[in-house]
Amino acid sequence: MTLLAIGYSRVQVAVSLSISEHALRLYIGSARFKLGASNTTHAVARVLSQGLIVV
């Protein structure tokens, strides 16, 4: 989420973490569900507002 919050694309995040884009989509989907977010942008906003990450 931190990398997404600072503006990385999904491809850049996947490369940075040395995982596949598919795995990243699964991880983001899981985080979105746990956060009750409707999309990735909403999930990033939630983690920022809850202080779970600092950018």
How would you characterize the overall build of this protein?
This protein is mainly α and 55 residues long. The protein is 67% helix and 0% strand. It starts with a helix and ends in a 6-residue tail after the last helix. The mean pLDDT is 97. This is HTH luxR-type domain-containing protein.
Under the CATH scheme, which class?
Mainly Alpha
CATH architecture: Orthogonal Bundle
Give the full name of the CATH homologous superfamily.
Answer: Winged helix-like DNA-binding domain superfamily/Winged helix DNA-binding domain
How would you spell out the order of helices and strands?
Answer: HHHH
Number of domains: 1
What is the CATH topology assignment?
A: Arc Repressor Mutant, subunit A
Domain HTH luxR-type: 1-51
Protein name: HTH luxR-type domain-containing protein
InterPro entries: Sig_transdc_resp-reg_C-effctor, Tscrpt_reg_LuxR_C, WH-like_DNA-bd_sf
Pfam families: GerE
Keywords, please?
55 residues; mainly alpha; Arc Repressor Mutant, subunit A; 4 helices; 67% helix; globular; HTH luxR-type domain-containing protein
Outline of the structure:
This protein is mainly alpha-helical and 55 residues long. 67% of the residues lie in helices and 0% in strands.
Outline the fold blueprint.
Layout: H1 2-5, H2 10-17, H3 21-35, H4 40-49
Helix pairs in contact: 2-3, 3-4
Protein name: HTH luxR-type domain-containing protein
Domain HTH luxR-type: 1-51
Pfam families: GerE (PF00196)
